[in-house]
Amino acid sequence: MKKKNEYAVVCHEIEKWFGEGEARVHALRGVDLEIRIGELAMLVGPSGCGKTTLPSVIAGLLDSNGGDLEVLGEMPAQMSGQERILFRRRHLGFVFQQYNLLPALTAAENVAVPLLAAGVNRIEAVAQAKRLLAQLGMEERAASPPAQLSGGQQQRVALARALVHKPHLVVCDEPTSALDAKTGRSPPQDPILGSAYPRIS
Prior knowledge:
The protein is α+β, with helices and mostly antiparallel strands. 33% of the residues lie in helices and 19% in strands.
């Protein structure tokens, strides 16, 4: 028998399509998935198989067209729009494929965004962000805007932003594609990811 708090994610017959009629394209068809608390799960498959769509549904960035989704023991479909926003803000971290860093902010300020949204004092939020970036070997780039960072550096900023508020679940869309080969092959050995894996899913 499953315990309610045993699973970070439970998907049952999740459906997602785009368009209608003859133009309808099915991205997800009857997806069943269970991810335990503290477990690392990776989606592997060809382009167009739903590797981006499913994480987006799990993170609440897209609504499914059918099926049941449970995240950290809660049913997002039963929440109001504001409740879902607060739930994501408190419990989830998300790494976008395109990073989505704010160009007018420094690396540290980008990392601090989730803390600021949670009401943390700006000085403390930026200080926490800088400490996290230092763990990633980016202490000297904390004051740099995204335009002055390499692709791998931008991706590390995005990873740090997803983890800085210590979420219970981190959902990533190709989180290591721009990192160096050694780090990309073995993400648990990364100084920040490795320390996070025992605590989050």
